[in-house]
Here is the input.
Amino acid sequence: MIFMCGFIGELVGGWIGDKWRASGASPNLVMRSMFSGSALVAAACILAAAFVASTGPVIILLCVAMFFIRWCGMYWCLPAIIGGPSRTGVLGGAMNFCGNMAGVLVPIVIGLIVQFTGEYFFALIFFVVAALLIALFSSLIDYRERQF
Here is the structure.
């Protein structure tokens, strides 16, 4: 159910982004608002889940978090937009490499956090901090199209 909410969130986020951009809004306004805003909502939901003891509300919070986290799936359009035709491949490759490295390192870090603390609370806090960093760094990118 959580990943289905992510799937729906990715489609809805893409649709909203397209509609908003088509209305004439600036790329920086659209992308910064959507990426930073969705990361902040996800951070709030994950933080709330860290303090809820009942399974049902935690599942709902994680569904909402995943719905908004998947809005960041639109990051994969960025190499073509901000890299321009001459840098799309290298930027896409760099993003893929960093994403794969995070996919290797994050489970190790989470395992170490749980091993040394004996609980998942700090593992959830790790994800809250990651979402806050996504919000911060997403607000610093210049999303205007390049024509290199």
Q: What stands out?
A: The first helix runs from residue 2 to 22. The mean pLDDT is 94. The chain has one domain: 2-138. The chain has six helices and no strands.
